[in-house]
Design a protein that fits this description.
CxC6; single chain; extended; CxC5; 13 helices; CxC5 like cysteine cluster associated with KDZ domain-containing protein; two-stranded antiparallel ribbon; 422 residues
């Protein structure tokens, strides 16, 4: 349909649309309607009379304030062309963005630093220093649906020469990863110069390690066999022709370590800081890991079972007979990293502080437990160990019972035991 034809139809059949709808309204409506038409082809015999079935969804999904009448007119006018309108922009960019002969390649991701001014030189007494463009290179992003092309931008400070990359800034061999407050990219993160990984893929890999005991080696093979080997439509990078889209074991290992550390960083130590100057490449994340483990030992953790890429590394030991054995370790919080923390609640701690004439504590009790199966630390065991298990009851349990004499609490505890006995 020619644009002139569309305008003529609108002018003759529903002239009020010319003063109520915009170009963006028409394009958004046509794009979504064409997507629905294509997806339902062969299953739902969609016709001009399907307007009442489709328009409620279109109005909701587009969050449009246009009246239903306007949507009916658009549906009637555009329906004959829906099969011609439909395109898949992401697929087209992936397939044609790096074709030879184009004046400029179009990648699927444009990855830039989240800051525009130098964080190192920031000082209230001096003017803010704006970053300058340093370079841009091509790379790959590993995601749950395969490999995607990316344009990676690097900025620099003209004063202190700190380099700012999409996931971190570096100064004298020290990388400082951006925090969530600064605006860290929540979708993908940089693993090495040319490679990024999405947090969703990293989480999938970690769950595979935890639940299926998939080794790092097999994770890499599984991904490459599924998305890289024999796949001919992954573009080669014009600016880095020697860089291949295969994911390596070292890239996968570092990616999972960074993912875990970034997830912990905001709560544990603010910014993930990595020394790349004096530390070997296969050990550069060990110091941040130690910080996380010390924080977990002090503060506890939301999930008892812990897994990271270091847990499934194979270590060889030479036996007396000359043979080698292999050990695969799985670390569990609360067993190998101190003990699970004292379960005294905030209300209980506040109650004890008031009775002792002390100010209320700022945070949970961090005293280690005497045994893994204890509920309270030794101090709070003496004062709270006899409390009714139906919390927040402040009464002591009756002799031979886990609850006080209140029937409601007796019944609640019985239901709890019946639920967890399996």
């Amino acid at each position: 349909m020619l644009l002139a034809t569309f305008i003529n139809i609108v002018s003759s059949d529903c002239p009020e649309l010319l003063t109520t709808i915009t170009i963006s309204d028409v394009i958004r409506f046509a794009s979504l309607a064409a997507e629905i038409y294509t997806r339902t082809e062969g299953a739902w015999n969609m016709t001009l009379d399907s307007a009442d079935d489709v328009i409620p969804f279109l109005r909701t999904a587009l969050n449009s304030s246009l009246p239903t009448k306007a949507f009916r007119h658009l549906w009637r006018i555009l329906f004959p062309t829906l099969s011609q309108i439909h395109i898949r922009p992401a697929n087209l960019i992936q397939q044609h963005g790096y074709q030879s002969g184009l004046p400029e390649s179009i990648p699927e991701f444009f990855l830039t630093p989240p800051v525009k001014k130098c964080l190192v030189c920031a000082n209230p007494s001096t003017p803010e220093i704006r970053l300058q463009h340093r370079s841009q290179i091509d790379g790959y992003v590993y995601d749950v649906d395969g490999v995607h092309t990316a344009r990676i931008y690097t900025m620099k400070c003209p004063k202190c020469t700190t380099h700012y990359r999409p996931s971190y800034y570096s100064e004298d061999g020290t990388r400082t990863y951006y925090s969530s407050l600064i605006g860290r990219n929540q979708v993908a993160y940089q693993v090495s110069t040319h490679f990024f990984m999405t947090h969703q893929l990293a989480e999938l890999f970690l769950n595979g390690q935890m639940l299926a005991h998939i080794s790092n080696f097999n994770l890499v093979n599984m991904f490459n066999l599924s998305y890289v080997n024999d796949v001919t439509d992954i573009p080669r990078l014009n600016g880095a022709p020697t860089v291949q889209p295969f994911i390596s074991e070292s890239t996968c290992r570092d990616a999972l370590d960074i993912h875990c550390l970034l997830n912990r960083a905001d709560a544990c130590f603010g910014n993930l800081i990595v020394d790349t100057k004096t530390t070997a490449s296969d050990q550069r994340y060990h110091d941040p890991m130690q910080q996380v483990l010390e924080w977990i030992a002090l503060e506890g953790t939301k999930h008892r079972d812990h897994v990271c890429s270091a847990c499934v590394q194979l270590t060889s030991e030479t036996a007396e007979n000359g043979n080698e054995g292999y050990i695969r370790a799985v670390v569990t919080d609360g067993v190998t990293i101190g003990h699970w923390r004292c379960t005294a609640t905030a209300d209980q701690l506040r109650e004890l502080a008031v009775s002792d004439g002390l100010p209320p504590p700022n945070g949970p009790c961090t005293t280690p437990l005497a045994r893994v199966h204890d509920c309270f630390c030794p101090n709070h065991q003496l004062r709270l160990g006899r409390r009714c298990h139906a919390q927040p009851c402040s009464q002591d349990a009756e002799n031979g019972s886990a609850t006080c004499g209140l029937q409601e609490h007796v019944d609640a505890y019985a239901r709890f035991k019946a639920r967890v006995k399996w």
